[in-house]
Amino acid sequence: MVSLASIGNTLCFIADHPLNRGHRVQAFLRYGRWQIGSRLVPGPVLFEWVGGTRVIVRPGEKGMTQNIYCGLHEFQDMGYLLHIITPQDLFVDVGANVGSYTLLACGALGARGFCFEPIPSTFARLSQNLLINSLLKRVTAVNIGIGASDGDLTFTVGKGTMNHVISGHQEGTDTITIPTRTLDSALGDESPSFIKIDVEGFETPALSGAVKTLNNPALHSVLIELNGAGARYGYDEREIVRTLFGYGFTPCDYDPLTRTLRALDGKNSTRDNTLFVRGVQEIQSRLSRAPQIKIGSRSF
User: Fold this and answer.
1) How far apart are CA 292 and CA 82, in angstroms?
2) What are the sequence ranges of the domains in the chain?
C-alpha cells in the first residue's frame, strides 16, 4: 500500500519539476492516467521517451514512472548528458539498472556505450530495453559487478534499485555471488568521455579499479551517486571528492535551462548525484553550442 506521505512527495516532485512549469495540469493528468491505467491493466507498458527511444515501464518503478510524469526524472543530470553527449562519444554506465541513462546517451544521441549491471534479473530488463531500441550492436552490456579487483562479490537480490554488495553478515538477506572486474580491465583500450557510476555505496572500490580510465584525457565527465550509502562499508565520500580532484575534476552543478555550469566546493548537497567535470571552460563552451532537446512541449 502506497502511503499518503509517498503520494504527497510525488505530487510535490511533479509540481516543482522544471519541465512542468506552466504545464502542471498536464503533468498531474499524466500521473492520474498512469495510476488508474496501471491498476486496471497491470503489467509492463511500452513508453515512448526522448528522441524516439522506448522503455518498458512497470508499476512501482519510481524513476521510470517519474519520467512519464516529468520527462526527465533527474533533470539536471540527464539534461547535462543530453547537452554534452555526441555520436562520437563513448558513454559508460556502471550500475546501469534498466538503462535509462544508456538509452539517452546511445538511443537518443547515438553514442556508443558500455553498461554494467550485476543483478541477473535487472540485467535481463536492461537487455530488453536495449533490444527494443535496436542498441545491441552499439552498446556492450555486461552482467558483472565493477570493483577494486577482478574476482567475485556477493550482492543482495530482491531489493530492486537498492540491491548492493553485502556488508558483513546481513541476517535473512537473499544474496547472489557475481563475477566482478575492475573498470580498467573491463574496458580494455576503450576511451570513454562520460562515465555514470551508481553502485549503492560501492563507489570507492569502483574508482580504485579505474586508475587508467580516470587518467585518460578523453574522459571529461563523471556523474557519481554520493548519497551517504558508502557509510555501510566505512567509506568517506569526502575521500571520493578528493580523489576526483586529484585527477583534475571539479564538482559542478548544471542548469539545463540556462546551460550554465557552476563549480562547487564539494559534493552536491541538493541531490543524490554529483557531477564532476574536467576542463570546465571547454565543456561550458560545448554546452552552449549543443542542439536544443525537445521533451513533450518543452525545448531546452
Assistant:
1) 9
2) 1-73, 74-299
| Predicted pLDDT of residue 118 | 96
d(CA 147, CA 208): 8
The residues of the chain scoring below 70 in pLDDT are 1-2, 168-172
Q: Which residue(s) pair with 253 in the sheet?
A: 262
* Domain 74-299: homologous superfamily in CATH: Vaccinia Virus protein VP39 (3.40.50.150)
Amino acid present at 144: I
